[in-house]
Amino acid sequence: MFVSDFLAVDHQGHLTIEGADTVALAQQYGTPLYVMSEGQVRESCRRFTSAMRDCYGENSLVIYASKALNCKEMCRIIRSEGLGLDVVSGGELYTAMAADFPAERIFFHGNNKTPSELQYALECGVGTIVVDNMTELELLDSLAAAGSKVQEIMLRIKPGVEAHTHQYVMTGSIDSKFGFALENGEAFEAARFAQKCKNLKLRGLHCHIGSQIFEIEPFCETARIMLRFMLRLKEELGLKIDKLNLGGGFGIPYIPEHDPRQPVEFLRQVSAVVHEQCEQLGLELPMMLIEPGRSIAATAGITLYTVGAVKEIQGVRTYVSVDGGMPDNPRYALYGSEYTAIIANRAKAPADFKATIAGKCCESGDLLAENIYIQKPVPGDLLAVLATGAYNYSMASNYNRIPRPAMVMVRDGSSREIIRRESYEDLVRNDI
Ligand code: LLP
After folding, report:
1. What is the dihedral of CA 292, 298, 299, 305, to 10 degrees?
2. Once rounded to an integer, what is the mean pLDDT over residues 206-234?
């Protein structure tokens, strides 16, 4: 299947994920159910790590952006694959620490880290804090001083590059809440200030231009801009920056028309640009870092739902309602994101039925997909939505007091629960 080599259809016409029958998984664990393929997660990690080594060399690191899917088991898998970890809140950091992720390989991002989050990061011994703004720079320096620490930092830079993606996930231009702008001198002033901070060690520059990007050129352009800025810091401030983090944002195939580049293609081109540009500018090659999130987790995951009401409105459309919806996957409601879905218990039947997949919330916008083609559904069928491994569980809510689904990890045909299904009791746990 186009989304993942770990998806197939067996002789009974059942969708399988890494050798596990989705119909059996639904019976065993109930629906809605998030299912992840461990093999696919590991393969995606390896595609990035080996491409990085082959194209750029050993002086590099692939960091998993855990906002895509953060839970203890994902942190353990990422650790065992040798990647770094990007966290963006105290909660993501706590999860990583609870999974014994090595703190020195953690990068702490965020545009408004609170004093207590920064203090917690210092106590954990987080390797790198990616500083977003002047308030944070001053605060972190004083917290590090109080703790008698010297904290390694990177500065988050807005390179001024526009990538072709959804407005809500564009982050590289001056009109963004993230980071220091280059155009107005902010980034230069931040570096000058950081240089004077006794308890901070400025080692790198970071940028992230957006998410679900298919083109390679915006990343190349970003690399050129960042390296020119590095040269300026070297010449005007005598600052030696030896790490360049180009962020994440690599697109994945949600629908057959999506045709993302392979990590090796992307890294070959970007590495060539970094090599060329460093040579031209007389810069030493920096350590190169990238931060894929979606492209590690998304295609490894599917969500299984049970079909309930099938409401055909003559001359309008057919709503196929499932037992989940925007609480477990808000991406269609938020961004109009497209998905591919399959009736998992009859996956060999022709997908010739035009359906709008609706959730169970009291909200008309609670849709998972509109006007897509699936096998003709009947109540009780199992519907699989593909490529839900990233930004689904991590963005899930309890809207309408709907408990979050369980998550199961499949490895070579056998499954294990890695996140328990929430109970009604869980929902009132913090109610007083
Ligand atoms: N690094 C930084 C600093 C980021 O902000 C992000 C994503 C990443 C790396 C990873 O980007 P990825 O490789 O996953 O595209 N909720 C949205 C996506 C928001 C992305 C936020 N930052 C969605 O569901 O499409």
Report:
1. 170
2. 96
